[in-house]
Amino acid sequence: MFLGTLGLKEDMVHDWIGSTEHGLNTSTMEEVISSRTRSDNGFKNEKKLYLREWLESLPKLSSHYCRKDSQKLYLEQVFRTKIDLYRVYETYCKDNDKKTYIVSFPIFDDMLTQMNISLYKPKKDKCDVCCSFETNNINEMDYKNHLEREDRARKEKEDDKAKALRGETYTLVVDVQAVKICPVINASAIYYKMKLNCHNFTVYNLATHQSTCYWWNETEGDLSASTFASFLIYYLKENDPKLPIVIYSDGCCYQNRNVVMAKALFQYCLENNILIEQKFLERGHTQMECDAVHSMIERKLKNRFIHLPSDYVNITREARRNPCPIDTYYLTHGFFKDYSKPSSWSYNSIRPEKKKKRMSLLLLISDICSTTQTKKKLCIKLILITVSTHCHVRVER
């Protein structure tokens, strides 16, 4: 009768009696509220931790061309919206009997912001061919061939990296960092002055993770093919590898994919009796280990003033400690050699006549070397495999 008058339930009254001693409550209201708050906060933190672990398990990729402006990590492009991603998380919790761990969408969105995760990649990170396919400017067959070449080039690179780790090859990746300017200071008068362009050519050893950076400014050297050939030949002479050499790069014509670079490497092959294979990644998909080195340098340059080109050298040396510091050189005009002169070539041309429907061409050059006893025939086989993703230059004696 009394319960109905006061609007109480019997279980509620029994609960109160059980939490009292001699009819008196032993805990204050603040303690009751505090215990409930601690319990609720503990479970909320547990749910957030579960969500964070799930997001960390998803494959992510950092921005390739926008590292300076964006530090975000990008999820694979299978999720079109955050709602799609949220629904996948809901399904994941239900499948693992964790329905109570499903958080609200605002908390989910806030966690994405805290972890600096995004679903969209900057347009500058997209391949031109891939963008053209999305806008129906190329047909499906061309796009399919493009993806096949990308997969083939990536698989080739993974195989060569495995060979390098086994000590079978000497595998390098090379790339040029984005142009830097000097000086970089906050003085307003500098905004209207012409800056000095500085460049960095990076060589990365896939087996040892050794990185070498060659810095120079536009008053000391240009961006011709001979400049980049000078870096590679100098690097090879300094390290003197005895194994077959594999060099990966993008297909930039004036840097890597030109006759001057090929002839410089060919001459090195003849002088050292060694095999060199130069391979090019598919256009638009040229992410390499050199990019990680450039990213470290970019982070170190953040909020730093540059007064002289040599300041870039000092910052590069500070950029990495493990697994080993970056070997850094600042070069002057006396370092560069002109490999475009015909006098530096052993042969006038190493480019065979182009023929359709042939993936590989063979040029056989033979010289007769006279000796006191017998005549030996020196055969040099130059194989140029003209594939869009690769260009192999092999020299065999």
Give me a quick take on this structure.
It is built from eleven helices and 15 strands.
**The CATH architecture of the largest domain:** 2-Layer Sandwich
Low-confidence stretches: 353-397
Per DSSP, what share of the residues sits in E-state strands of 2 or more residues?
Answer: 15-25%
Number of domains: 2
The structure class reads: alpha/beta
- Describe the main β-sheet briefly: 10 strands, mixed
**Overall 3D shape:** elongated
Q: List SSEs in N-to-C order.
A: HHEEHEEHHEHHEEEEHEHEHHEEEE
CATH class of the largest domain: Alpha Beta
SS field, number of helical segments: 11
Would you tell me which CATH topology of the largest domain applies? Nucleotidyltransferase, domain 5
In which range does the helix fraction lie? Answer: 25-40%
End-to-end CA span? 109 Å
CATH superfamily of the largest domain: Ribonuclease H-like superfamily/Ribonuclease H
> What gyration radius follows from the Cα positions, in whole Å?
32 Å
List how many beta strands DSSP finds.
Answer: 15
Mean pLDDT reading: 79
